[in-house]
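User: My notes are a mess, but here's the protein and adenosine-5'-triphosphate's SMILES. Can you give me a structure?
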Amino acid sequence: MARNRYDVDETLEDHFDINQLKRLGGYVKPYLGKMFFIMVLMLSSSALTMLIPKFVQLEMDRYIPQKDMNGIIRLVIYTFLIVLYSVICMWLKIDQMTKVGQDIIHEIREDLFAHLQELPFSYYDERPHGKIQVRVVNYVNNLSDLLSNGILNTITDLCNLIFILIFMFCTSPKLTWICLCGLPVLIIYVVVLKRKQRASWQLQSNKQSNLNAYIAESINGIRVTQAFVREKENIKIFNSLSMSYRKAWLKAVYYNFMMSPMVDLISVITTSFVYVVGVSCILGGGRSGVTVGVLVMFTAYISRFWQPINTIAGFYNSVLTAISYLERIFETIDEPVEVTDAPDAVEMPEIRGTVDFDHVTFSYEDGIPILKDVSFHVDQGQTIAIVGPTGAGKTTIVNLLSRFYNTDSGCVRIDGQDISKVTLHSLRTQMGVMMQDSFIFSGTIMDNIRYGNKTATDEEVIRAAKTVRAHDFIMQMEDGYQTQVNERGSRLSVGQRQLISFARALLNDPAILILDEATSSIDTETEIALQKGLDELLKGRTSFIIAHRLSTIQGADRIMYVDNGNIMEAGSHEELLARKGLYYDLYMSQYQG
Ligand SMILES: Nc1ncnc2c1ncn2[C@@H]1O[C@H](COP(=O)(O)OP(=O)(O)OP(=O)(O)O)[C@@H](O)[C@H]1O
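Assistant: No problem, the inputs look usable. Here's the predicted complex:
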């Protein structure tokens, strides 16, 4: 898939089809029993309320002319009881169906989030994170109305419609046929409107996604924005995205609202016809059996006839709206997990630490290879430094070692075992990775270090922090290891965040340690102290250290100089200096410049 930006609408890879609706049915299925119970309540309530117009007819045609007060009071009491029963049923329905709707939403969201946890780095590389967020939060929320009320109301109203039709036919077949004349007009209208509605809701969901992506990006980049005084431009971009969203929303809502007035219009026209025909029947002497009471009862039924049609039309709207969200939700859930365990994957045995890159070629984007036929061997326990210019492919090499991406060709082996043939869990739990982005989660410092090994004791966490020389600054904070830090560690300095991430990578007691620019923001004094502790720790452990500051890697067993997608030079610090090649130039530029 092509990369997406906040101002570009996402294209759907798989359009909605009926199977996806069936899939939604799969989420609804466990609640069918409860929904059936509520439906029975609603149907019984509407069947009973159907009697109320009959009571009115009886009062007008029988009890009032006969001045039968007892009969009238009896019917009023029945009416009251029926209304009370309906209110109770309605209350139960709202209470239960709101819970059902939210339960289903929770399950869809859970599946979505669980799948996101498995998706590879490449998925996140390809789109703004705000567009992922909007699917998990807003799109799923937007299904709420459909799931809580839409499905049940529609089934109930369909049954109501059948009841009403039976009552209407029993009352006056002639007037019923007049009323039904309006239906074909409505059906044609709905079919014509459908396409426009669907397109407008898809557009609206895209614009919402774009807006969300920009908000997320702006919040993440707020410091740079303020530093470069770009607030006005940002507001301009935001306004333009927000206006596009507003326009798309208004259009979608406009099409939605075109449904209900049409239903009302047809209802008014047919009701007028019914009145005209009904009154002419009464004036004609009532031979057709239409009395004043019958006409009043029938017009009460007509209003009830159009009411469920309105609900069904509303449901149809909600389905169209929901479809535009569902296709995005299922698209995410169906996104293939490209980096996953092979069907015959085995557990990675305890890693000793030899590493081989065997003719590895890799590209992030098709046709643009970043690593080209890279091969090297690392012995158990060696410390390998990877150096080279910015963008040369150093991080890419170590990313492949943890199998964050799959190679295009060639293979990576650890202890002779092709890592694409072992389970990701057994591989990654034996590696300690400190990435360039020292991400800090919201929580305590203790939690953040323990992220590397959730079973580690407090003492082990503290030991790791001491090894990387983080202990002192942590103890100076108001609550020591229990100090709360914000997401991204905004109250910590960059160097402090690096040290915490460093401790996190060590905590797992990894067989292979990967440090990507681990100490780039740490002062020289701390770095020297840290180096001593680390030398001890690295003994017997294979480690890969990426560094721009060459002072940190001079003691490495081997230094690999990476450029142009390959390893241009490799050897010890002394060997490479003696060779007077690329590494020598780099070294000289740092120490003589
Ligand atoms: N997720 C990605 N998608 C597409 N291209 C990428 C991605 N990550 C890195 N690249 C490209 O791959 C190349 C190698 O990147 P890499 O991060 O491995 O470089 P590096 O040597 O570690 O650089 P630095 O010293 O700046 O950290 C760069 O040209 C970069 O533009």
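The CA atoms of residues 175 and 274 lie 6 Å apart.
User: Great, I'll file this with my notes.
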